[in-house]
Every structure is written in C-alpha cells, then in structure tokens.
Write a structure and sequence with these properties.
- The chain has 302 residues and is mainly beta.
- It is built from two helices and 16 strands.
- Strands 1, 4, 5, 7, 12, 13, 14 and 16 form an eight-stranded antiparallel beta sheet that branches.
- A hairpin with a 2-residue loop joins strand 8 and strand 9.
- The longest helix has 21 residues.
Length: 302
C-alpha cells in the first residue's frame, strides 16, 4: 500500500478485522500475525516477571519472588507438625517463610522406594532447600538434591505452599530452571488424593518436561509434552476448574483433560526426587533446580 491511505470505510473494516483476529488468536491460542506467541492462559501473559493481581476467574492468594529474607540450609527442619494438613509447618523456619511454606519431613521415602528402583531417595529438606540471591542478585528458592559419596539414598525435597494446601480448584504457576544437570534426578509437581492425580511439570531432568492427568478412579492417563529442555527458563502453569484441567508452558497450552477431573480439596506439592526412569543418580553426584517465583490463585472465591 506504500504511503497511500485507505478510504475511511476501508480503514474501519481493516481495524475491525484485525481486532477480531487478535481476539480469536487470544481465545484459541493461535500465533499472532506479528509472530509473537498468543497468550492462552487465564492471565493472558507470556512475560517472565512474577504476575501480580487477579486474572479471569482466579483470585491471587500467593505471589512470592524470593527477594526477601534469606533462608539458609538447615532452616527447612522440624517439619513433622500437623503433616499433610493446612496447619502443617516447619519449626526451623521463621517469620513469613514459616507462615507460607512447609516441606515433607526428613525421613519420608520418595516415590522410587515403591517402584523397585536400584537407587531411591529420602526427603531431606534441611540439607536440600534454601532461599537467597543468585549471582545476578535475583532471589531464588534453590533445590539442590544430592547422593552421598558412599552410595546411600538420594537426598530429595518436596516443598508445599501453605496458602493453597487443601484447596479445591485454582491456578498454580512458577518460573523454573534446572541450573545443574545430572542423570538420576526428576520433578513431579502435583496435586493428588482420592484416586486422582495431576502432575505438572513432571519428568527426569535429562528428558522432556511433561504434564500428566490421571483421571479419578482410573482410566488411561493423559500425557502432554511442554518442552524438551529443563535447563532453560520456563513458566509452567496448571489451571484446575470444575470439570477441566489445563496445562501451560510459557503461556502456551500444552494439553487439557475433562475426564474425571478432581472435585475435592488437594494440596500443591512441589516434589523433587530420585529418577523413576533411566540411570539412577551416581554416588557423589548432585543436581539443582532454581525457582525464581511462585504464584497461586483460588478459583471463583469472589
């Protein structure tokens, strides 16, 4: 068209058509005409910063960027209080972190113990989980799992945001990256209970970042690949609403399911443990996951 202006009525048609296209792209998750990815999640965002505020039917109840007090190794200890309830807490934590976080207590076995694996893990939040600034000053929760040099069990970690323990429905998001990679370590962040399970993200850190839905009462699982590389920064989100669960990576929907979706309160467990597939962790090895922010939302409370 060069510098020639379109007639007035043509401009209105073009503007209306472009608006409809953008609306359709946002609703359907289609790529935008300018090449940018269309945001498909309820917050309509593909940014890297901690989101703040409500979005769609979701009311934000947790927004943590880990830029506050440091939490050194050893603080996630004495976590045997009122376990697996909304009143659970770790006696070694102080202030807001004690109010906002819990962890599976030291000595609990990880999933590999029930799978016949040669290398299994035991939860040790006191020597795997810490909070503090990275080299660039960015506040992070660090999960550094490791296996003793003598070949004992992997020291694993499962941390739980208390604000959304035993909550029905919601939106759950985090920005994560595996900053040190080694075979034998994985994540399975999940909601489970009563024969129901939703896992996102899940996978061995040397493999693909996946999401899974195990319908309540059994049935074929739904599995959805979100990324092939844990060592890049990704924003992962799960949106759980009545009759539907949707999974997102970097604002893009990677899968959804409507079969026997949970309709009971469940807790969000940021579970990190020894691998269930492939080689086990080598003696003396370690691997690390960094979390730069976590956000969680209740559903339709307003």
């Amino acid at each position: 068209m060069g510098s020639h202006a379109a007639p007035h009525h043509d401009r209105r048609v073009l503007v209306m058509s472009a608006s409809l296209l953008l609306l359709a792209s946002g609703l359907l998750g289609l790529p935008r005409a300018d090449g940018a990815p269309a945001a498909a999640d309820a917050c309509h965002g593909t940014g890297t910063r901690l989101p703040r505020g409500d979005c769609g039917p979701f009311w934000q109840v947790l927004a943590e960027d880990f830029n506050g007090d440091r939490v050194p190794l050893g603080s996630f200890s004495d976590c045997e209080h009122q376990v697996d309830t909304s009143g659970a807490y770790c006696g070694g934590l102080k202030g807001e972190y004690r109010d906002n976080w819990w962890a599976y207590p030291t000595g609990w076995p990880d999933t590999a113990n029930s799978r016949g694996r040669d290398v299994v893990g035991v939860y040790h939040p006191e020597d795997t989980v810490s909070v503090g600034p990275a080299a660039d000053g960015d506040g992070r929760m660090t999960v550094r799992m490791w296996r003793p040099a003598d070949g004992g069990p992997v020291h694993a970690a499962a941390v739980v945001p208390r604000a959304v323990m035993q909550m029905k429905y919601g939106k759950y998001s985090a920005r994560i990256k595996v900053t040190k990679l080694a075979p034998g370590y994985k994540s399975a962040w999940l909601h489970y209970g009563g024969g129901c399970e939703m896992d996102h993200p899940e996978g061995e850190w040397t493999g693909a970042l996946m999401a899974f839905h195990h319908p309540c009462g059994g049935g074929e699982q739904g599995s959805y690949e979100g990324s092939d590389d844990w060592t890049e920064w990704h924003t992962v989100s799960t949106e759980w609403t009545p009759g539907r669960v949707r999974f997102f990576v970097d604002g893009r929907e990677t899968g959804q399911d409507t079969r026997s979706v949970p309709d009971r309160p469940l807790s969000w467990v940021l579970q990190n443990e020894s691998a269930l597939e492939g080689p086990g962790a080598a003696p003396g090895s370690s691997a690390q996951l960094d979390i730069t922010w976590v956000a969680a939302y209740a559903y339709d409370w307003k």
